[in-house]
Write a structure and sequence with these properties.
The protein is of the alpha/beta class. It has 2 domains: 7-213, 2-enoyl-CoA Hydratase, Chain A, domain 1 (Alpha-Beta Complex); 217-265, Lyase 2-enoyl-coa Hydratase, Chain  A, domain 2 (Orthogonal Bundle), CATH 1.10.12. 49% of the residues lie in helices and 14% in strands. The protein has 11 helices and 9 strands. Helix 2 links the parallel strand 2 and strand 3 (69-74). Helix 5 (156-166) packs antiparallel against helix 6. 34% of the residues are buried.
Length: 274
């Protein structure tokens, strides 16, 4: 007798197999974390296949209720050296740009917070990957650059996100000069949240991940939505956006009530993640 298969479980099994078969991005789902590692030696140059894997991996991780955060790092000495030059041919450029857009749209749209760990150069598209991360932990080995201007181009995604992160004057400087930025200056500019010695990187990442996964997953999602969803709005509209989430979404969660009860009862919350 053939055992009936739940369609949702079947889809999940197929998607898992697909993730396990990725060639350029390693994905490990464990303890509330989707650990995604760029793995295309030696410089993690982005091609269409790698970008598709990145987009699909982020989308899948974001769809899982058991995942609270997405951690993106590199298996190479370089975080990411940008787009592989061969992808810019007239025959490849449209497919490559579509894959490029899909990967970054996934980073923007995913509800789960994305942490980028940068322990080496992040150049071109690699710098844009870091810029689109919600939090960035870096070591002094990191450096960031948008050198596209030197080959007669400009970085469309960096040109959009950098003014939000560092202001228009500094964004113009970074894009128009193409000069690299040290990890120390990136911290000053707000491109990096935490700068730690390489010897302490693993511990720093683990501490941050442990702290964030100790919170309610849905509440993390709503907090990210409140912050990023208010960008570009007036202060008045931003307040309305945040309060709407707070009153009409947050208060419907079991976890929001559990948090209040735990505070009153002076105990640690027992999150249900719902």
């Amino acid at each position: 007798m053939v055992e009936a298969v739940n369609p949702e479980e079947f889809v999940t099994q197929q998607q898992r197999k697909k993730i396990e078969d990725y060639e350029y991005v390693r994905v490990l789902l464990d303890a509330g974390v989707a650990h995604m590692t760029l793995n295309r030696p030696e410089h993690n140059l982005l091609n269409e296949a790698m970008l598709r894997e990145l987009a699909e991996g982020i989308e899948y991780s974001g769809s899982r209720e058991d995942i609270k955060i997405i951690l993106l790092d590199s298996a190479c000495k370089v975080f990411c050296g940008g787009i592989e030059i061969g992808e810019y041919t007239s025959q490849r450029v449209f497919q490559m740009l579509d894959a490029f857009h899909a990967a970054f749209a996934a980073m923007v749209d995913v509800a789960k917070p994305v942490i980028c760990v940068v322990n080496g150069p992040a150049i071109g598209g690699g710098a844009e990957l870091a810029a689109f991360g919600d939090l960035v932990i870096a070591t002094p080995k990191a450096r960031f650059a948008q050198p596209e201007i030197t080959i007669g181009m400009f970085p469309p995604l960096a040109s959009t996100i950098l003014p939000y992160l560092v202001g228009p004057k500094t964004a113009l400087e970074l894009v128009l000069t193409g000069e690299p930025v040290t990890a120390e200056r990136a911290l000053e500019l707000g491109l990096v949240n935490r700068l730690v010695p390489e010897a302490h990187l693993e511990t720093a990442v683990k501490d941050l991940v442990t702290r964030m996964t100790g919170h309610s997953g849905p509440v993390l999602t709503m907090a990210k939505k409140a912050i990023l969803g208010g960008m570009g709005l007036s202060l008045s509209d931003g307040l309305k956006h945040s309060m709407n989430i707070f009153l009409n979404e947050l208060y419907r969660l079991e976890d929001s009530q559990e948090g209040l009860h735990a505070l009153v009862e002076k105990r640690k919350p027992n999150w249900k993640n719902r």
